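Sequence in, structure out.
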Amino acid sequence: MELMSRALSFAALSLLTLLPLVTLVGAVDPQSGLGAGRFLGRVLGLSPSSQARVTEAVVSPTQALRRTTAFGLAVLAAFGLTFGTALQTGYEKVWQLKSAHWHALWRHVIWLALFVGFLLIAVAALGHGTSLVQQGVGGLATVAVSLLFFWWSQRFLLVERVSWRALLPGAAATTLGLIGLRIFSGLVFSPLIASNAVTYGPVGTILVVQSWLTGVGFVVYGGAVLGRVLHQRHTSHGRAGHT
């Protein structure tokens, strides 16, 4: 129940932060491959028709750049830092650690900047080429980058209070979970977006996207929990072998 609660919170923050962020990046750098519609189409593995429905439901990068104000950027930055804080709190809960001191808030700024870089690399790799070989290389690159990012994210947001070795199973579980979620999205969410767009319009599309973001949050926090369980079992087996 707590995982689901945190996943819902993750989805809400993502809707307030992630989609506007990738839209603005796509507007500033059109060659990045970002923009909420294209980004969601690639990470969800949507069909061209479903991706078109998502693109219709969100603001285009050109309109976003024209309508963005200084106040809007400030609110987006505030929610972005809150996003990092929520993730840090979740990781601390998983490892039963005390909350980091306030002077560690600079880590959220660094994390948010590298998170944008991670999105740029992942989306570029997913959209690299059309042949099976190119798509396979892009998929492997995305898996490698995801593993490294979530491995580093845990270490960085936990203020280096947990070893790299202990955090590796969680990063691997999160990466594998996201792969499974993408396959599930292509099989379930893609046709669901198409049908909901006809039945409910843009609202139906956003509801499906919100459901996917909830799944991402569940995988991110659940992967960290599974990683700690695997680490504890490995540690306990090692101690039993020595005794």
